Each structure stands twice: as structure tokens, then as C-alpha cells.
Amino acid sequence: MSYLDNIRTFVRVYELGSMSAAGRDLRISPAVTSSRISQLEEHLSVRLFQRTTRSLAPTEQGKAFYGGACEILESVESAEAQVVNITENPKGALYVAAPFGVGRRLIAPQVPAFLKEYPEVKIRLRLTDRKVDLTTEGLDLAFFLGQPEDSNLRIRKIADVVRVLCASPDYVAARGAPMSGDDLISDGHECLNLRFPGATEFQWRLVTHEGPKKFRVTGRYESDDGDVLTDWALGGQGIAMKPLFEVAEHIKAGRLVPVAQQTPPEPIQMACLFTHRKRQDPKTRLFMEFMIERIGQVVRDSAAQGQLPR
Length: 310
What we know:
Layout: H1 2-16, H2 19-26, H3 30-44, E1 49-51, E2 56-58, H4 60-83, E3 92-98, H5 100-107, H6 111-117, E4 121-127, E5 141-145, E6 154-161, E7 163-167, H7 169-175, H8 181-186, E8 191-194, E9 202-208, E10 211-217, E11 222-223, H9 226-234, E12 239-243, H10 244-253, E13 257-258, E14 268-274, H11 276-279, H12 282-305
Parallel strand pairs: 3-4, 3-5, 8-11, 8-12
Antiparallel strand pairs: 1-2, 5-14, 6-14, 7-12, 7-13, 9-10
């Protein structure tokens, strides 16, 4: 199995771009990570990575070997599935990505129940509000809000998520409560914006009497972490657009109040992404179905129970 371990280590180093990151991911020391790569290079009689004290990059031989290495690991998984009833007893690491709010409030609380049912699976949950690339980042499954850009991936819709514009009572007392998207613009409200890589402007899509309309909003506050926006809103710094399930408790407790309810945000799709190959992996399929059933119900209950006061 040592050769397979070396290949697995190579794949994670290649995908994460770092010996130390791959070691943390595989729960092995940097020394073991480096040793496995050296053993593989010695076996192949090529250098797979160019290393300096500050950087690491795959060589041409490393790039060529990566595709074949992935096929080897996939073949091993497929062979194991032929001789073991792995659907009933799945095993191995599952790499899952989700936005911060979705991951913290919906995915993470359900993981212990899944692992209790399938104790030989290991969950590697990565939380980020940026867009992820399943292939280059070595992910099995990614939950997301919105519309994916890569049409080559498979999508399973979970639910339509109700969103709300909200601010703290202190902010409303100081700046007033906008009634609509037009008020957001004309009254110069401080809008708290979620930053995505490459974004050049912020547009909130709100539902008006004429239908959905984009409003170009501005503000001094922006972050790539949605929970930071919630904290700023609670602190009275501005108005945030948030999924209702993330702020329902704050609204119920009066820490946040809905605003601009004449033009509410358009609901946003929650779904999960996976490749066709990963859909055939039993642990991926079981985890996806497990989460879709549970978090979909949480989102629907939030929408049903969280009717906003007008």
C-alpha cells in the first residue's frame, strides 16, 4: 500500500500546491509528506515538483503524471466497490466545500449524525464564500448559493432560499428605514457587500412591482465572509442582504429588523455540485442525499416559520 499512499500524497500536494497543506489534509507530518514524494520520484526516476524555500510547482512530468495518478486512485476505489458492499459500509475521506453560512449552520451540525451512521467515512469540510473549482481543488462535492458557471458539472437543487435585507435597530434609528430599493440608492444607505474574486461592482437583485430588477448599491464595508457582514449589521454599520435561515434568530430576538420590504430580494437557489464520476462514488452519493434531505427541510421550515413582519 506504500506506493498507493505515495500516489495519494502526490495528488494532494499537486491539488493544494503545498507540502505542508497536503500533510495537514492527510493528517501526516511534513517530513512524511516530503519522504513520500521523494520515494515516488525515485521510483519514477523523474522530478515531479520544482521546489524552492518559498514555492513549489509541478514539473511537466508532474503535470503529465497527475491525470494518470487520479485514474489509478479511481480504479482502486472502483475495484474495492466490486468486492465490498461499500454502499452499506462506505469508507474513505470525502472532501466537501460550502459557503461559511451554509457550512456552519446547515452542513456542520449534521455531520456527526452522518458519521455515526457511516463510521468509516472521514469528512473534510472546507468553508469559503468564494467560488470553488471541484477538479483543481480535489473536491468531491460543493454546496453553493446561486447559479454555477461550469455547465460540465452535475447539479442537485436543494431548495429556494428566502433572503432578507436587514439592519440593526440602531442603524434604522440613525439613518431611517428604507422602504424600497430606490430608497437604498437615493438616501445613500450603507450597504454591506459580499466580495467575490473579480467583482467590480455590487448589484442587489430585488423584486419590484415590474419584476426583478438589479440595484447598484455602494458602501464602505465589504468582505468575502458572509458572517462578517452579519456582525457588521448587528453592530449598526449598515444593511446586509442575508439568507433568512442565517439571520432568523437575530430578527426574532429584535437584534436585526427587515428593511426595504416593498422590494424584497429575489430568492436564491441552494444546490450541490459534483462531477458525473463522483456521483457514482457511494460515499459521495450517500452524503449528498443525507444532507439534501435534512438541510432542505431546515431551509423550507425557515421560510415557512420566518414570515417577516410588515
